[in-house]
Design goal:
The chain is α/β, with parallel strands linked by helices. The chain has helices spanning 17-25, 48-58, 116-127, 237-244, 251-256, and strands at residues 29-35, 38-43, 63-71, 79-87, 92-100, 106-107, 131-132, 161-166, 171-176. Among the domains are: 17-132, NADH:ubiquinone oxidoreductase Nqo5 subunit (Beta Polymerase, domain 2); 142-181, no CATH class. It starts with 16 loop residues before the first helix and ends in a 47-residue tail after the last helix.
C-alpha cells in the first residue's frame, strides 16, 4: 500500500502560536491564553470580522468549523460567542471568542464563510444573540412562534407553551403550560439530612404519639414444644392406636432381659408373637430350550 504524503504535520504544536497571533491581532485582542491544549483568543466584539479575516488570510486558518454559544447569567455581557477555526496546512486549531448581551448585535462573518449563516442562526435560536448583517436570521431548530431561547440558563425546563393536535380545529394548537412551579428555584437537599423546613404537604400529616408498650408479667423465654405423651406419634389417631397395641415378647427377649439390667422387661400377653414367614414354594426346574437347527451352507462351486 502506497504511503499518503501530506504537507500538514502529523502532530501540531502550540509552541509560539499564542505569542505570534497576539502580536498579529494587536489592539483587536482582549486576552489570550493556552488552556487544556487549546489556544483561546478573546477579541473585541466590533472587530470580530477583521480578526477572523486576518487569521484566515495571513495565518492559514482557512476553515470555520463551528460557532457555539455560552450563557453566563451573572455577567453583564452574559453571552459568549465562540468561533472554532482549523488550519488545514498546519493541522492546528484555535478558538476565538467574544462577549455580548441580549440587545447588542454581533457583526456577521457570512462575508468570510457563507456557512456561518446557518451557524449564526443556531446561536440566535438557542441563545437569542443577534447577528448584524446576517441575510436570513431566523429560527432553525425550534418551531415557528416559539417563545424564548432553550439554551439560556434561565429558560424553564418545561417551556412556556405546549402543543397538541386539536380535533375541533383539525390542526396543531399551542396552549400555555399549566404547571405551578417557579421552574428555576430548586432545593438540592441531602437525602440523609432532609430539609430544615416543612415541605409542602407535610403539615397535614399528624405524627403518631409514642406510647409505652404494655407488658403482662415478666418476659418468658421461648420453651420448645415437645410431645407431652410418649404414645403420641404426631401422625394421627390410627398411628397412635397401633403404637399402643401390646405384643407378646419372644422367648429370646424374655430370657435376656432382667430387672437388674436397667432395660424394661416386656410383659406377657395373650397374643402370640409373630413367627417367621412361610417359605416360598419351590418351582420345578425349567426344561432347557431346544436348540435351533442351522441350515448347511452351500459348498463353493468347483469344489
Amino acid at each position: 500500500m502506497a504511503a499518503v504524503l501530506h504537507s500538514a504535520p502529523r502532530i501540531s504544536s502550540n509552541e509560539g502560536v499564542k505569542d505570534a497571533l497576539s502580536a498579529a491581532l494587536g489592539e483587536m485582542l482582549v486576552a489570550a491564553e493556552e488552556a487544556y491544549g487549546e489556544i483561546i483568543l478573546t477579541v473585541k466584539r466590533d472587530r470580530i470580522e477583521d480578526a477572523l479575516r486576518l487569521l484566515r488570510d495571513e495565518h492559514d486558518y482557512q476553515q470555520l468549523m463551528e460557532i457555539a454559544g455560552v450563557d453566563y447569567p451573572n455577567r453583564a455581557e452574559r453571552f459568549e460567542v465562540v468561533y472554532m477555526l482549523l488550519s488545514l496546512t498546519k493541522n492546528h486549531r484555535v478558538m476565538v471568542k467574544l462577549t455580548s448581551d441580549e440587545a447588542t448585535p454581533v457583526p456577521t462573518v457570512t462575508t468570510l464563510w457563507p456557512v456561518a449563516g446557518w451557524l449564526e442562526r443556531e446561536v440566535f435560536d438557542m441563545y437569542g444573540v443577534l447577528f448584524a448583517g446576517n441575510p436570513d436570521l431566523r429560527r432553525i431548530l425550534t418551531d415557528y412562534g416559539f417563545q424564548g431561547h432553550p439554551q439560556r440558563k434561565d429558560f424553564p425546563l418545561t417551556g412556556y407553551v405546549e402543543l397538541r393536535y386539536s380535533e375541533e380545529d383539525k390542526r396543531v394548537v399551542y396552549e400555555p403550560v399549566r404547571l405551578a412551579q417557579d421552574l428555576r428555584t430548586f432545593d438540592f437537599m441531602s437525602p440523609w439530612e432532609g430539609a430544615d423546613y416543612v415541605l409542602p404537604g407535610d403539615e397535614k400529616a399528624e405524627a403518631p404519639v409514642a406510647t409505652k408498650p404494655e407488658t403482662k408479667g415478666p418476659p418468658q423465654a421461648d420453651v420448645p414444644k415437645v410431645t407431652e405423651k410418649p404414645g403420641v406419634s404426631g401422625a394421627g389417631e390410627p398411628s397412635d392406636s397401633a403404637a399402643k397395641a401390646k405384643v407378646a415378647p419372644s422367648a429370646a427377649a424374655a430370657d435376656t432381659a432382667s430387672p437388674d439390667s436397667g432395660q424394661p422387661v416386656p410383659k406377657a400377653t395373650g397374643k402370640k408373637a409373630p413367627g417367621a414367614p412361610k417359605p416360598t414354594e419351590a418351582r420345578p426346574a425349567r426344561k432347557p430350550r431346544a436348540k435351533k437347527a442351522t441350515k448347511p451352507t452351500a459348498a463353493p462351486e468347483g469344489s
